[in-house]
Structure formats: C-alpha cells, structure tokens
C-alpha cells in the first residue's frame, strides 16, 4: 500500500512537472514573437527612423544573434545550475534564431535586391560582410532541418551532435558579419563576440579538462 502511494505521488509530481514545462514552452513561444510584433508595429506607425530598411535589417540581425546565443547558453546554464529541464527549451530557441535569420536574409533579398537573384552572387562576392552573413545562415539550415526527434534517431546521437556543433561556426560568422557591417560603433558586435567566446570557452573547458576524482570532489578526502 505504501509503495503504491509512493508511486502515485511520483506520478502526480511528474505529471505536474510536465505541465509546467509545457506552460513554460508556451510562454517562451509567445514571448519570442513579441520582438517581431513590436517591429511590425513600429513599421506600421513609421517609427523606424530615416532609413526603414536599415532599421529592419539591423533589428532582425540582432534578434538572430540573441536567440543563437541563448540557445548556446542552455547547456552551460544546465550544467552549472543542475536544472536539466532547461534543455527542453534549446530547440525552440535555436529555431527562433533560424526564423529571425531567415527574416534578416529576406530583408536583403526583397528590399535590397528586389528578388533579382542574378545580382546576388556578384554582390556577395564584392562585400565580405554579406559573404559571412550568408555563410552563417546556410550553416544554420541543416541544424533547423535536423532539429526533430525523428532526425535525431535517423542520424544517430553521435553524428547529430557532430553536425550541430556547426552552430558555433554560425555564431562566429554572424558576429563577424555584424562587426564588419557597423563600421564605426563596434560596442554591440564586441559584446556579442565576448558572450560567444565565454560560451565556447566553457564548452572547451568541459571537453578537455580532466574529470574530478572522487576524493577531490569530496569535502573530506581520505588522508
């Protein structure tokens, strides 16, 4: 009887936890759309400055970097805090990074090139910051396409993890793209670069540092 009650309490707790995660996912989903809604509202009210194209391009580009760095920050935050449930939000954050990256690309293709695809290759070749931006975006394409549980099973965990390390290259390309774009005030690109370096440094530290021995992890090691 006691065992049954313990099992029932555990089931209720797990069910409650799952509901909390689903609710937090919904909150994250809705709030991640808020920047886009505010941007569209500013465009509608014509409060986007003297150069609307530049405003929209810069905003969508910054949002891409923000969500990309947030997705990269999930694993360090999980390991430092022990909150393993944070990993359940990493996929959504990564997909939002791809979504805003796609919008960023469309501002260039639509408003800058007017869907004249013949002029894009020469423009990309002549302007290095566009080359880096394009490379960063296309590195995110396979990551978005393989983000489902079905693709994880199809590729296998080992190959899937290797593939998704491309996100760091995408982050580096995105930061360099932003840095070359701004020309004068580089404070924001350097801030993004600093955060990316911290996240990459944490990953390298975890990968190459020797695991702590049981005695060193204990508060009272054996003499």
Molecular structure report:
With 223 residues, the chain is mainly alpha-helical. The protein has one domain (51-208). It contains 10 helices and no strands. The protein has helices spanning 2-44, 52-81, 90-112, 120-126, 128-145, 149-155, 157-163, 166-182, 187-208, 214-217. The protein is globular and about 55 Å long. The model is unreliable at 4-15 and 214-223 (pLDDT under 50).
If you average the pLDDT, what whole number results? 85
Q: Per DSSP, what share of the residues sits in E-state strands of 2 or more residues?
A: under 5%
Terminal Cα span:
46 Å
Determine Rg (CA atoms, Å).
22 Å
Shape: globular
Give a short account of the largest sheet.
Answer: none
Secondary structure layout:
Layout: H1 2-44, H2 52-81, H3 90-112, H4 120-126, H5 128-145, H6 149-155, H7 157-163, H8 166-182, H9 187-208, H10 214-217
Brief write-up:
With 223 residues, the chain is mainly alpha-helical. 80% of the residues lie in helices and 0% in strands.
List keywords for this structure.
single chain, 223 residues, mainly alpha, 10 helices, 80% helix, disordered C terminus
């Amino acid at each position: 009887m006691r065992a049954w009650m313990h099992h029932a309490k555990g089931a209720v707790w797990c069910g409650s936890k799952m509901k909390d995660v689903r609710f937090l996912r919904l909150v994250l989903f809705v709030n991640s759309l808020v920047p886009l809604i505010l941007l569209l509202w500013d465009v509608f009210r014509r409060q986007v400055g003297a150069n609307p194209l530049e405003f929209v391009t810069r905003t969508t580009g910054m949002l891409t970097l923000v969500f990309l760095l947030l997705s990269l920050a999930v694993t360090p935050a999980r390991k430092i805090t022990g909150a393993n449930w944070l990993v359940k939000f990493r996929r959504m954050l990564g997909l939002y990074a791809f979504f805003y990256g796609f919008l960023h690309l469309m501002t260039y293709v639509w408003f800058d090139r007017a869907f004249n695809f013949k002029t894009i290759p020469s423009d990309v070749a002549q302007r290095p910051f566009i080359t880096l931006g394009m490379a960063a975006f296309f590195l995110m394409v396979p990551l978005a396409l393989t983000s489902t549980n079905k693709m994880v099973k199809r590729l296998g965990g080992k190959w899937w993890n290797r593939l998704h390390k491309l996100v760091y290259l995408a982050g580096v390309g995105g930061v360099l793209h932003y840095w070359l774009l701004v020309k004068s005030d580089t404070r924001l690109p350097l801030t993004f670069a600093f955060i990316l370096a911290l996240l990459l440094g944490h990953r390298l530290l975890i990968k190459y540092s020797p695991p702590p021995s049981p005695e060193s992890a204990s508060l009272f090691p054996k003499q």
